[in-house]
Amino acid sequence: MSMMKPMKRKAVIEQLNKFGVREIKGLPLDEVLYSTLLKTLALKRAAQS
User: Fold this and answer.
1) Closest by Cα among 32, 2, 48 to 12
2) Helices then strands (H, E): number in the chain?
3) What Å distances lie between residue 11 and 4, 6, 14, 22, 25, CA to CA?
4) Contact present, 37 and 23 (Cβ < 8 Å)
5) Contact at 8 Å (CB) between 16 and 41?
6) Could you list the pLDDT tens digit for every one of the 49 residues in the chain?
7) In Å, how far are 6, 8, 26, 28, 46 from 2, measured between CA atoms?
C-alpha cells in the first residue's frame, strides 16, 4: 500500500504540470501537502470545463 502513495502523488504532480503549475504558494510541488495538490488540481479541472 505504501508504494501507491508516491505513485499517486507523482501522477497528480504530472497533471498539475500540464496545467502549468510548478509551485503552490512559493513551494515546489514536491513539498506541498497531498491534499493541497488534489484541491489545486480539482480547481484547475473545474476552471477548464
Assistant:
1) 32
2) 2, 2
3) 10, 9, 5, 14, 20
4) no
5) yes
6) 567 889 999 999 999 999 999 999 999 999 999 999 999 999 999 999 8
7) 8, 10, 28, 22, 29
CA pair distance 10, 29, nearest whole angstrom = 10
DSSP secondary structure code for residue 30 in this structure: G
What's the CA gap between 18 and 11, in Å, rounded?
Answer: 11
CA distance 25 to 31: 11
Residue with cell 515546489: 28
